[in-house]
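Hi R.,

Here's the chain you asked about this morning:
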Amino acid sequence: MLLKRSFALVVPILLLVFVGFVFAEEPLTEFTSADFSGSGNCATCHSNLTDSASNDVSIDTDWRATMMANAAKDPLWQAKVESEVIRNPSIGPAIEAKCATCRMPMAHTQAGVNGTPISIFGSGFLSPTNALHDAAMDGVSCTLCHQIADQNLGQPATFSGHFPIDTSTNAPDRLIYGQYDGGLQNPMRFSVGYTPVHGSQIEDSGLCGTCHTLYTTPVDSNSNPLAIDFPEQMTYLEWENSAYDDAGSTPASCQECHMRPATGLVRISNTPPNVLPLPNFRRHDVVGANTFMLK
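And the predicted structure, written out as tokens:
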């Protein structure tokens, strides 16, 4: 009995380690769509970065091992969503659309703009033949988070994946937000079709709250939706009511806790050569204490 129990615990851990290793070795995607660009395109300039202590703080190196990068590749998530669809086939499309919102946010958003189906299984986003497959598998990527505008963040209007992104502006005038002001704009305009501007919301917990406040619609035994919102994940609201809230006794944003600070100064791009080193850079490792993924 003890051997069986140990085996049952070890197998999921080995599976996750193997999956993480395989995906860490894959090249980052270089897809482009009307509104998004793959992490591999961003990595061209935002890799090979070091801080004042010579630590490797490359954005792609840190990010690619995070749950954000692997949000769509997570085998436990895929299995859970599929099991829900199998048990509730009459509302399967609604389940897939809901679950793709924050796990496959670029594909979900682009499909909504394009007027194409939003689905995960079959010929959906997980299929390599789907036009938005690469966008889906890039998870919570650079051009998703950095395009979120400063509109109603931290408010119910943006919860449950209703992150405000401007999909009406064409390249290269699409705005992409960062913590620094006065940087060079033409390199990004010419290479990836975005205009970088300062956006203080990139350091705001409300930006994280767009996906980390999740309400779902429960159903009865016959898969009929109930007229209530179920608070499935309330991470942002829990933070807002804690000592770490901006007005709390020990204020600390999501980014301050989950993105480790680099040491000293960092040139945030490896090109052009006249990019100046900047202070207060935070690593994109998005560390956490959630041990569920190891169980």
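The longest helix spans residues 2-25.

Let me know if you need anything else.
M.
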